[in-house]
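Support case: coenzyme A complex. Customer-provided input:
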Amino acid sequence: MNEWPTPPTFPPLPPHELHVWRVSLLPREGRVEHLRGLLDNGERIRADRFAFDHLRARYTISHGVLRLILGKTIERDPATLQFETGDRGKPALIDGGDVQFSLSHSGELALIAVTRGRRVGVDVEYTGRKMPEPGFVERFFSKAEIAAYTALPQDQRLDAFYAGWTRKEAYIKALGEGLARPLHSFDVSLAPNDDPPALLCVHNAPDEPARWQMRSLNPGEDYAAAVIAEHPDWTLSEFSWPETWEPR
Ligand SMILES: CC(C)(COP(=O)(O)OP(=O)(O)OC[C@H]1O[C@@H](n2cnc3c(N)ncnc32)[C@H](O)[C@@H]1OP(=O)(O)O)[C@@H](O)C(=O)NCCC(=O)NCCS
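Agent response - structure generated as follows:
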């Protein structure tokens, strides 16, 4: 696994870069209370709807750190940031200039992807080393993906499944269409180690794959993740958000 370093100071975000931050969602002493102070009323109401403390904490940490990262990126007070939600649920910054972001959380990790002037989607899944339920691949993957998946030996299928799932979700999230975009209407590559992975084909939109660049991410053992963003070429940097202090 690569390192995902914590930078000593907050890194600037030039237009040709894409930053993915790995955020631990463990509720260290005082962390949830501090980050809750950054949330707006709507976010606090959403947090309070979770029946379990650990889910409330995960929501609060991921949205609080999202505010810190975006606030530093556009040099604004994180508590004053405002968000709007697209027709199909994709959140965006109001008055955020060209900054675009995507958030994903699973298990004890969140990933936050930030870039400028291009649509971006990130997805992380805790795999728990669990194979998908019977029929899941047939239900959600495209014909080409099902064929690629079933051609693999059994011992490669777990990684291929999560590689495919996170790549598909990342693309759906970049588009912002949620599940209005049928998951079987486009094909991604499945081989876990084929970095860079690819959006191979979007049915009825032959030019679409050339518009996007995809990367797989390795944020931790038993996690799979992928990020996709529009061209022109960008370079990826991976960072860990500190659990106990904030970079200046
Ligand atoms: C909502 C969805 C966009 C992603 O959901 P998910 O993978 O369960 O959750 P993630 O943690 O990755 O992403 C959630 C975040 O995405 C963002 N989001 C919500 N709707 C979004 C949309 N339409 N577009 C982009 N981002 C969206 C929000 O920031 C949300 O965070 P929040 O709930 O804390 O506010 C949607 O694609 C979905 O429900 N997918 C699951 C469907 C499935 O079964 N897929 C099988 C894949 S093979």
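The pocket of coenzyme A is lined by residues 59, 62, 88-91, 103-105, 123, 140, 165, 168-169, 172-173, 176, 178-179, 183 (CB under 6 Å).

Case will auto-close in a few days if no follow-up is received.
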